């Protein structure tokens, strides 16, 4: 018999929905309903999808796939993936008991359906040329090692080289322990590349998705010209497991987008249905030093561009 | 050498000789005629055993040495190497952090800026220094001093010794991640050379935040890691007791990291670790820094470019579509 609890994997939506207990599943028709993780209301998939997986009742932001995110932040058909063939060399030949990091990477690739914790590419967004990087929580919890750091760095360099705007959607559990200090060095590497991009007066829009911790937060995430978070996104320095190890307990509301906004660390909290439109507005404001973008005219209604496009797609 | 320091768990074999030595120091020389001879014999025994223990040293042992309560701290080294050091205070935004200390000094006849992470020794000092775990204002003070160095064309020497940046609610509220990221970016921007020395524990983001050196040195028994071995063990091994294994696997020692090309130089320590002979340890560090300075002093060189390239190459990746592999560093 088919295990309905695994449906979320088949549809490639990662862990957006936690599996339901068996007795509740019996009552549900296949692939039509889901229970909202925020208000536990049963919702039609098609209603959720039309609202980029934000609950229309309570506003809970369910996890979306890297592909859905790329579609949301690029003009249709404009995205060209870069550096997708980069793989880790396992420089430390890291093994936990009998399990090698190399095996773990192969498993992660199978589970997540992507080859690393970040997907990068070039695209246009409302006609503005961008370099786009989107992190993937499903791949080893979005942990940053040599490859993720290299891909982020190359995305920064590509923006610099072509005169594009840079947009990074981050979600990361922290630095990847399996690559030791090589992982930590990615903080310096990405910060160095960003310093050059920003000296060239090219914009970096940093978007925080649930959850973003550790080395990612303390390097590129924090260095955006504009920093936007999704509502309720968890964001902070030490992730929950590190805090547990150092025996620090933080109140639930501390490592949250709303807390960071209140304390002046981020610029905006933008609900996902408005995110595309907001990013477009910034790109048009900041395109002064972009090459081949000066002549791009903003589409008539920036603010609703995101919604507009999503309707067109249907 | 101070043979009376408390032993670490892997040095337990020394405790018997040490207590015998302690008894001798209290003994009345008039009642023990061959005191000097006895002491010399015990000391020779101690040194022989110490050398044997240190020949067999494993990475985990160095983790323990790097955290030894008597290990010399930044200000201990500064007192010997930079006697005219003047500490400057405050980040000009919020406060003055006790865990990061910095200011101008003279070395080899040249004005430099020193920045160091400072652990305490007494309980009172540890509270003042937050156990060497910097708050955001510490990194903002460091950033201010880095900009000062750039303005007045002074080389920077940074000393790393932290179990990690402070991670409490107040640190999140004042943006510890932001302070670290901005400190890194500022180091990428400046043109004066930076020499970074890991003198004790170099843990995670709180360490690299002030360690973006053109040259990175490590003391022989210091460690530098993406995460504490205990935290790695509890997450990946699901068992904190696997910390020694995690320390070996993560390559946290100076010797492992030099082989990987991630650091440039190991500064030797006296036998048994810097805490057994801080004066000699400071002398070894001074010698190393003198040599480093002879390379950077009064030279016209694009240090920003060299720094960019140094960090740009870190990371071992392969492009599976081409045969060119990104070679290991170094
Ligand atoms: Zn809901």
Sequence-ordered SSE layout with sheet pairings:
The complex is a heterodimer of chains A (314) and B (330).
Chain A: H1 7-10, H2 22-26, E1 33-35, E2 42-44, H3 45-50, H4 66-72, E3 80-82, E4 86-88, E5 95-96, E6 99-100, H5 101-112, E7 118-125, E8 128-135, H6 146-162, E9 165-172, H7 180-199, E10 204-212, H8 214-217, E11 226-229, H9 240-245, H10 257-262, E12 268-269, H11 272-285, H12 305-313
Parallel strand pairs in A: 8-9, 9-10, 10-11, 11-12
Antiparallel strand pairs in A: 1-2, 3-7, 5-6, 7-8
Helix pairs in contact in A: 6-7
Chain B: H1 15-26, H2 35-55, H3 59-66, H4 74-81, E1 100-107, E2 110-117, H5 123-128, H6 136-151, E3 156-162, H7 169-173, H8 176-189, E4 194-203, H9 204-208, E5 215-219, E6 223-225, H10 229-237, H11 243-250, H12 254-259, E7 265-267, H13 278-296, H14 303-312, E8 317-319
Parallel strand pairs in B: 2-3, 3-4, 4-5, 4-6, 5-7
Antiparallel strand pairs in B: 1-2
The structure holds zinc ion (ZN).
Zinc ion (ZN) binds at residues 36, 38-39, 41, 55, 57-58, 60 of chain A.
Mean pLDDT of chain A: 88
Low-confidence stretches of chain A: 1-15, 302-314
Given the helix and strand composition of chain A, which structural class is it?
Answer: alpha/beta
The arrangement of helices and strands of chain A along the chain is HHEEHHEEEEHEEHEHEHEHHEHH
CATH architecture of the largest domain in chain A: Alpha-Beta Complex
Distance between the termini of chain B: 35 Å
Rg of chain A from C-alpha positions?
Answer: 19 Å
Largest interface: A-B, 71 and 63 residues
Bound molecules: zinc ion
State the distance separating the first and last CA atoms of chain A.
33 Å
- Unreliable parts of chain B: none
Largest sheet of chain B: 7 strands, mixed
Question: Could you please say which CATH topology of the largest domain in chain B applies here?
Answer: 2-enoyl-CoA Hydratase, Chain A, domain 1
CATH architecture designation of the largest domain in chain B: Alpha-Beta Complex
What is the top-level CATH class of the largest domain in chain A? Alpha Beta
Apparent shape of chain A: globular
From N to C, what is the helix and strand string of chain B? HHHHEEHHEHHEHEEHHHEHHE
What's the total number of strands of chain B? Answer: 8
The CATH topology of the largest domain in chain A comes to: 2-enoyl-CoA Hydratase, Chain A, domain 1
Q: How large is the count of helical segments of chain B?
A: 14
CATH class of the largest domain in chain B: Alpha Beta
């Amino acid at each position: 018999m088919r295990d309905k609890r695994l449906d979320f994997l088949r549809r490639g939506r990662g862990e957006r929905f936690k599996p339901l207990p068996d007795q509740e599943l019996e009552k549900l028709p296949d692939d039509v309903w889901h229970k909202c993780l925020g208000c536990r209301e049963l919702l039609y998939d098609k209603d959720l999808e039309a609202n980029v997986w934000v609950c229309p009742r309570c506003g809970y932001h369910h996890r979306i796939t890297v592909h859905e995110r790329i579609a949301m932040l690029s003009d249709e058909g404009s995205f060209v993936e870069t550096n997708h063939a980069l793989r880790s060399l396992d420089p430390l030949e890291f093994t936990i008991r009998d399990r090698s990091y190399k095996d773990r990477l192969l498993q992660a690739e199978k589970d997540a359906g992507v080859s690393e914790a970040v997907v990068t590419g070039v695209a246009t967004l409302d006609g503005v040329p961008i370099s786009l990087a989107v992190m993937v929580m499903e791949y080893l919890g979005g942990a940053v090692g040599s490859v993720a750091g290299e891909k982020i760095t190359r995305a920064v360099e590509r923006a610099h080289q072509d005169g594009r705007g840079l947009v990074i959607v981050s979600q990361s559990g922290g630095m990847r322990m399996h690559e030791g200090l090589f992982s930590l060095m990615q903080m310096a590497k990405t910060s160095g590349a960003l310093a050059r991009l920003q000296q060239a007066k090219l914009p970096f829009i940093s978007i925080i998705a649930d959850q973003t911790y550790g080395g990612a937060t303390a390097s590129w995430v924090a260095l955006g010209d504009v920093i936007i978070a999704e509502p309720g996104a968890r964001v902070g320095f030490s992730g929950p497991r590190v805090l547990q190890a150092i025996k620090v307990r933080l109140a639930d509301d501390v490592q949250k987008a709303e807390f960071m906004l209140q304390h002046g660390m981020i610029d905006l909290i933008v609900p996902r249905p408005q995110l595309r439109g907001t990013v477009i507005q910034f790109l048009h404001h900041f395109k002064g030093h972009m090459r081949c973008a000066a002549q791009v005219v903003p589409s008539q209604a920036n603010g609703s561009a995101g919604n507009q496009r999503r309707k067109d797609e249907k | 050498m101070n043979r009376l320091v408390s032993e670490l768990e892997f040095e337990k074999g020394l405790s018997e000789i040490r207590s015998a030595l302690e008894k001798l120091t209290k003994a009345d020389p008039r009642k023990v005629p061959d005191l000097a001879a006895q002491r010399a014999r015990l000391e020779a025994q101690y040194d022989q055993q110490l050398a044997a223990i240190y020949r067999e040293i494993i990475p985990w042992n160095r983790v323990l040495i790097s955290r030894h309560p008597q290990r010399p701290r930044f200000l201990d080294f500064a007192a010997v190497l930079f006697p005219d050091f003047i500490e400057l205070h405050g980040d000009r935004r919020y406060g003055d952090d006790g865990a990061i200390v910095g200011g101008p000094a003279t070395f080899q006849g040249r004005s430099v800026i020193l920045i160091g992470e400072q652990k305490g020794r007494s309980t009172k000092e540890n509270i003042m220094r937050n156990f060497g775990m910097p708050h955001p204002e510490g990194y903002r003070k460091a950033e201010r001093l880095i900009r000062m160095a750039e303005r007045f064309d002074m080389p920077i020497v940074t000393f790393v010794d932290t179990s990690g940046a402070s991670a409490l609610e107040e640190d999140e509220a004042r943006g510890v991640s932001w302070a670290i990221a901005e400190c890194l970016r500022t180091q990428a921007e400046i043109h004066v050379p930076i020499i970074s020395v890991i003198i004790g524990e170099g843990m995670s983001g709180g360490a690299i935040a002030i360690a973006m050196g053109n040259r990175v040195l490590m003391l022989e028994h210091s460690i530098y890691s993406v995460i504490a071995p205990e935290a790695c063990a509890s997450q990946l091994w699901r068992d904190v007791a696997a910390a020694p294994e995690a320390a070996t696997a993560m390559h946290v020692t100076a010797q492992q990291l030099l082989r990987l090309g991630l650091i440039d130089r190991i500064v030797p320590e006296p036998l048994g670790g810097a805490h057994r002979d801080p004066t000699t340890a400071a002398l070894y560090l001074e010698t190393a820094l003198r040599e480093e300075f002879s390379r950077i002093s009064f030279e016209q060189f694009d240090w920003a470019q060299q720094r960019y390239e140094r960090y740009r190459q870190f990371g071992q990746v392969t492009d599976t579509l081409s045969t060119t592999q990104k070679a290991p560093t170094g």
